[in-house]
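Field guide to reading this record: the first block holds the primary sequence, the second block holds the structure written as discrete tokens, and the final block holds curator observations. Each block starts with its own label. This record concerns Mitochondrial outer membrane protein porin, catalogued under organism Ceratodon purpureus.

BLOCK 1 — SEQUENCE
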Amino acid sequence: IFATVTVDEFAPGAKSVFSFTIPDHKSGKLELQYKQDYCGITGSIGLTPQPIVEATGALGSEGFSVGGELAFDTANGALIKYNAGIGFVKPDFTASLVLAEKGDLLKASYLHTVSPVSRTTVATEIAHRFSKNENTFTVGGLYELDTLTTVKARLNNHGKLAALLQHEWRPKSLITFSGEVDTKSLDKAAKVGLALALKP
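BLOCK 2 — STRUCTURE
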């Protein structure tokens, strides 16, 4: 049995959430949330003798945001997660810079809307993994065939080519066909996928 107790607005913009699973007495967690128009902060702590403490925060204004998250394991006294990011959103483009995976991965991305009518969008991402001194460059695009059908494709500098076709066959119910091939190793079998999402 999973249970959640929520206390809304115990102070302006603040909320507390207590969740637990029965009979697992170590599953308890207390979370505090504070939200305003351009700011959001959360903090949580496991209700155990040596809990994991987590915190997230985001600040923003019109078209700009910055945020981060971290998790601290009190059992071994170490940070087990920390990520940070900054983003810009304008009517025809979105750009972001994200430091993830405990500072090992730096990603810069840019998405540009070519045609708002057909929702044609192109995107690029450059990622650098510090532990391997490895760079990945990815380009991709999205094209709306009609209001219910979307095609997406992407290719990276390692030769991975992926595409998907998604169709909304009834409101909020989607069927997706996807595939991926390694263009540098065409003798390997391609990956093919089918996903079905249903909403009553």
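BLOCK 3 — OBSERVATIONS
The chain has a mean pLDDT of 91.
Residues 1-83 form one domain.
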